[in-house]
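Worked Example 4.2. Consider the chain below.
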Amino acid sequence: MPAGTGKTHLLAAAAAVAASDGKRSLVLTHTNAGVDAIRKRLRAFGVPESQFRVDTITSWAFSLVRSYSSIAGMSVPEVPDWTQSDDYLKAATTVAGSRAIVDVMAVSFDYLFIDEYQDCTLVLHEFVMALAAAIPKSVILGDRLQAIFTFVGPMATWDGHVLPDFPEHVLAVEPHRWTNHNRDLGQWLLDIRPELVDGRVFDFAAHSVPGLSYVSGTGPDVLAAVAHSFRDFDESVVLLDKWPTDVATHASRLGGSFSVMEDISGNFMRAQLQGLPAEGDSQLAWWFANFAKACVVGLSGIDAPVLKRLADSQGVAHYTRAGIEPILVALDKLRDSPTYAQLAQTATDVRGVKGLRIYRWEAWNDTLEAIALTAENGDAVGGNLARVRDRLRRTGRRNDNRIASRTLLVKGLEYDHVIIADVSKMQDPCNLYVALSRARKSVTVFGSSSLVQLRSGA
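Applying the procedure from the previous section yields the following structure tokens:
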């Protein structure tokens, strides 16, 4: 089913019907955003939490391996290392296929629903087939035009792997997401699907639909003008680009009015924490100064001379830097007392300075929390960051109506307005479709040309 045509609604409705008959459903998908969306829809249907379990496929695999490690032949840590996802899935396939666990799952669940199946690798598919053997009343849902995840390993194909075991059930589709928002835009997104194929050229200038705008050029000034033109702050706006560095650059240039959405693994945070000095090391002030500059707009005064003196463990409070003198004083305090507690105080001082705006809130909060946990429990800061980010998988992200992100991270989410910063980077048909279909009300597309040469995998 295409984006916005009621796939999540249908899934939740089916689980609700099952619950009304006293049946229990296991619902799995790929992303935490998807898990959150399904849970909200099930609650809207009034389905008791005792009648369903919703999780990501890999998280469910991890749970099985951790609970039945002897059957799995694998011991796993308390907090998952998601770089080992395929190992968890293979071990979980062994668990799910064992006679005892087949019996457990058969009495635990009456129905199995798998969403976003177009993103399944063969390893994921084999795990699902093991689950389906225990829970034969199984339904999978997906849309081949939304296959944008680049998991390692061969993908399960619709014709070769999916349809032989899950016969296709065709439904009429309607642009439900756009009802009461912009139905014309929703219908257009359904109509252009046949044009979004490898090898075709798509011309935005050739399409006229309410809510769709093409802007020639990709300069920061014209992009900022559009991004700041949405004055209704009850409406959500997402600015999309392809690469993490580009996303961060946009958020910084927009003065912190848009916040960067981080990937669930926290790669930016991990990179920052790799160089975190130990307590007692005066380089802690130099580290924090660099971290703050990577997250906060308005710290240009922490320039090369300031950073060099901090790197040499020398004071910086004597410098004249308009607006940030209190931060220079705080950095000297951190240099003189290089503890994680003092680092936390320095971070508080940064937040108290007028004119500064944090544009990487997620990274700022979670990195500092991981450091605080290390000060408290003595564990490695990387492990503590994993705990902090794992909590995000269960609780979801904080609400923010101005987001800068990659398409990959907003799949399954929807916003009132979408801005595509440079359509020349959206050559992959699936990536382009997912980006366009996040919008309920409007899409603004920037590019040096309105023509996009579509190439799968680009």
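Residues 189 and 437 are 7 Å apart (CA to CA). The radius of gyration is 24 Å. Compare this with Example 4.1 before moving on.
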